[in-house]
Amino acid sequence: MKKLTTIFAVLVLALTAFTGQESKQRNGTPPMTTEEKEVYSAYKAINNAMIKKDRAKMELYFDKDLTFTHMSGKKQAREEFIGEIMDGTLNYFKVDTKDYSISMDGDTAHMKVTHTLTAKVYGISGSWTMSGENTYKKSGGIWVRIK
To answer: Which of 7, 58, 95, 132 could form a disulfide with 16 if both were Cys (CB 3.0 to 4.6 A apart)?
Structure first.
């Protein structure tokens, strides 16, 4: 049971860390602003980096002080989380975005998203539909995930 709880926690963590290859539906109107489009592009870049195991891109889009917190309460620094992706402990194959919304507050963006993740984590494969929220801050001309 503990292993299953840990796996579920990793999935929740991954889903809040990144979401979607392509948008299926955007929650709310009016059309996206330029900044919202940039945030969504960062979100997609993170997904692609995690799926392709692109360390450089993950390091670019994850703030150096970002801490990932699993549902179980386990905390991981950015490097540990990226390390588990790179060594194959966490394998992400597809993220299908179902719904999302982005709200702006100056140079900070909050993205709420519902998506289905197809992955193999700690030896267990499956697809899970979940919701999460990410926070981005504009830094060096790009939107970096800070939470």
So the answer is: 132
